[in-house]
Amino acid sequence: MIMKRILLHSMLSLLVLNSLQAQQRSSNELSELVKASFVYSPKLAEARNAELLAADKLRLVELNARPDFNADMTYAYVMPKIEWPINGQKVQFAPVNSLNGFVSGSYVLADFGRQKAALDRARNEQLSQQHTREVSELGIAYQVAQLYYQLLYTRKSIAIQDTLIHVLKESLRVAENQFQNGTALEIDVLSIRSTILNEESRKTEFVSLLHKQEIMMQYATGKSVSEGGEMRWVSPLVSATSDTINPTIKLQIDKLQQSKLEVAAAQLKTRPLVSLRGTMGTRNGYLPLVNDLRFNYQAGVGLSVPLYTGGKIQQQIQIQKRLATQQQLALSTLKKDLERDLNMAEEELRASREKEARLPSQVLLAEKVVEVARSKYRNGTGLYLEVITAGSALQKAYLNQLQAQYQVCLAQLEIARLKGTKFW
Asked: Taken in order 157, 162, 166, 168, is the CA torsion positive or negative?
């Protein structure tokens, strides 16, 4: 008795260990598939490049705060010669060969917030591109995970078909023996064979679907799904916290912030601009020796004040304010839609779990009915129709259980997507 308990305990421990190992293997495998899809996805490559482009634009805006210097050189042949007689002598007022070489520089001394506004917009654009990449990653990961669970579902459906076909073939063997002994009718044998052919045709459809799903997975990730995966939701490697936000919400917040920054930038157009300018170089044309090159320089301060623009700046400000209001309304709509979808997904998860909890007992009952029907048929006290009916009921029970597990996985996957949880 003690040995039996020890053996039973060992078997249960082994089953639990195998189940945990299978779930861990599924978790690692799904994570690897998702990460591999990131490398394969051209859409994600485009998002990464856009993120780098935003960083380059930010660097350009930062460089705009630096002064500008230019080197120029000009030559002009001037005819007719500009000269005038004075005291009996011709005095030349301009050179025939005009030469001018100089270095000029300019620097914005005070822009009254324009540079800071440009930096804020560039930084927000960079953040927006980062969130765009996160949206793409979450979408690709969601699609790969969906395909992963669809593939597992198809594989396990094939295994269920194999179980049913095995039961039917055992019944066919009994029916053929009984027919040879004269205790069964030929129609029994033919009916079971027909049922086996139908179930094998259905298996062929599942196998074809599985091959298509494997091709899609290979195309999306460059990898294949190993055998033995469990139809169980993997625990997120990065758990959701109170600060976790769906990247779609983050992206919409970025758009709202960008609209507000555009309003501020439009308002700055009414402010003046103070700049420092100067040149230094050498040229000819100075009296009295107009042909001699002479060093020269100049420096000054420029002030630009918008006085009248015909109301265009005010209209631009009004347009940007309207756009900001539009983005705020879009954000509110998006939050409500996500809240609705999340509530529906949580309800789907609750119902699927409740259904999943009831199905093991139904499977055990169906298995028992199959055993009784097969035993009765072997002993000549049952009909082949009972075996077929029991086998169909068992198949339905297996499929219902698998379907419930599949729905639980999809519901949890949908919740992870809506919450913006990284499960890879």
From this structure: positive
- Give me 399's structure tokens: 């499929």
Phi-psi group of 265: left, alpha or beta (phi > 0 → left; psi -120 to 50 → alpha; rest → beta): alpha
Q: What is the pLDDT of residues 257-314, one digit of tens each?
A: 999 999 999 999 999 999 999 999 999 988 888 888 999 999 999 999 998 888 899 9
Tokens standing for residue 83: 């000269």
**Assigned token pair, 134:** 């996160």
Query: What is the C-alpha to C-alpha distance for residues 417 and 389, in angstroms, rounded to an integer?
Result: 41
Q: What is the pTM of this model?
A: 0.78
CB 420 within 8 Å of CB 240:
yes
